[in-house]
Amino acid sequence: MTVVKVEPEPALELASVAVAEARAEELSPPLSYGEDEEEEDDDEEEDDEETDSEGYGGGGAPPLKKGPWTPQEDKRLKDYVEAHGEGNWNQVQRNAGLNRCGKSCRLRWANHLRPDLKKGPFDAEEVDKIIKFHIMWGNKWAKMASHLPGRTDNEIKNYWNTRLKRHQRAGLPIYPEYLLSRVPDQDMNCHTPDESRGKKRSNELPQEKVVGMDDLVGDFMVFQHLDYGKDPVVPANPLKRHASTGDLSCVQIPANIEKTFYSNDLNYVLTKSQSMPLGSAIANGYPTFDGNLSTSGTIHGSMKTELPSFQCSKYDFSNGWLLQCPSASIEQQIDTFIQSPESMSSHNNGMLGTIINKGDVLDDPTKSGRVFEMPVPLGCNIISQSNDYPMWHPSSSVNGDCEPDACLFTEIQDSNSPSGGSDAIFTLGKSYPDAIFSVAGMPGTSLEASFLNDDSLLLKDQSYFYPSGSFFDEDSCEERKPLIDAGQWFDSSAWKSVPGACNTPDFPGP
DNA sequence: AACATTAACAACCGCAAGTGG
DNA sequence: CCCACTTGCGGTTGTTAATGT
């Protein structure tokens, strides 16, 4: 059994052989850095010192040892770090009598010897968190580890990769069912985590200012009218820019929705006082009415469109999200969009959808209360606000039961409309600065929306609506609980959910 | 029992950011 | 500013244990 790598350099050959021999003895009990390490210490120490001296008694720096750590090495490292503290790993190497590079020492300490390490398999809660984190951040193992006390990035990475392989082999979705769309979608063009491998890390991204997507995605209000006849629509086309990485992620629109979205060219951009045809897209918050893109910055082709998080197209977060992405290849289309200002012109394919700058309205008190109105013959209306966090629906279900999605709205109230209909007021609450929500109105109705103030949105004459949304607090790793349940149609006049309308965006009718 | 496959784990490598002289 | 060094991160590979055939 070969246990160590033998360095190819001739000068090192003798040492390598010696090390190999020693290793063969050391490893006769399988790698175990557990509780019984102490009893072997004496023998191991002798072996170790013998090895070191035998191999390099003649002077010159011994080659740094590779391969598994022995209990004795562990003890030395542990003793040293406990006495001198962490850091200065090359000093550790020199002063602790360890023939290991500082890097190796650091790794061994961080992954195995640290006293605060939590051993054993991941429990369900940890697994749940890992999946959440991966959805949000992709392969940011260190970041995940910082949110999982006692766990190391390496541990998480190993777990994930193993899980990934297992799921891929079994043909299972990478993320659990409860994250999947309610609308079946077999198109799997989105990236898989594997595809993110080998790509540059986020901190390797060019540091150039990428204007647009942050602005476009981060704080905007999306108002879309999508005419698809009487077909229902899921208010879900998430696209977000990762807060931590700057990566752009997207959740694909189901194929059946795609048709209705794009076969009928009835998209509108909501401006402060008028509607305008799609194609007059807004960049940096400023709508243009001539079909030309107006930007104060540039949109770089280098914008990274890695999809470390929403790799699976099946994820429907039940939210209207900023961009409408035709199904085929989301990332391709995002690339196209990003790289080509033309794509935002009047000839664009609708991917950008319709955007209105919420901040533009909200920042100016005089603009509050403006009504956005769209004459809509038929269709479902979607409003969504998106900030910086992806949606998360831990309790949603795809099985048709009535387990509701989480919803962010902190307050919803109905009011009497002069026209006799019911209005719904969505109060987001300022304590949820990173909120995400969407609401779909009834098919076939005209949807009016206006900001009452900077955190309330009035939907006029919407007797029924379908809210969804959630919030995941990156700092606390906790999902903020909403005050009402989403994922079901609400009757705003009776202020109750519509029977039989749970967990389906299909409008059930009054 | 022997072999093959898979899962879990450990460790290394390359790269890049940070830091201090 | 440059350079060397340290540190941290993520990808990858290698090894062993467990399981299946």
TrEMBL record:
Highest taxon listed in the record's lineage: Eukaryota
Myb-like domain: residues covered: 61-113, 114-164
Pfam family, one: Myb_DNA-binding
Subcellular location: Nucleus
Alphabetized InterPro entries for the sequence: Homeodomain-like_sf (IPR009057), Myb_dom (IPR017930), SANT/Myb (IPR001005)
GO biological process per UniProt: regulation of lignin biosynthetic process
Protein known as: Transcription factor GAMYB
One GO cellular component term: nucleus
Domain HTH myb-type: residue ranges: 61-117, 118-168
Gene3D superfamilies: Homeodomain-like
UniProt-listed PROSITE patterns: HTH_MYB (PS51294), MYB_LIKE (PS50090)
GO MF assignments: DNA-binding transcription factor activity; transcription cis-regulatory region binding
Bias (Acidic residues): 34-53
Organism: Panicum virgatum (Blackwell switchgrass)
Sequence segments annotated as region (Disordered): 23-72, 185-206
Stretches with biased composition (Basic and acidic residues): 192-206
Principal subcellular localisation of the protein: nucleus
Keywords: DNA-binding, Nucleus, Repeat, Transcription, Transcription regulation
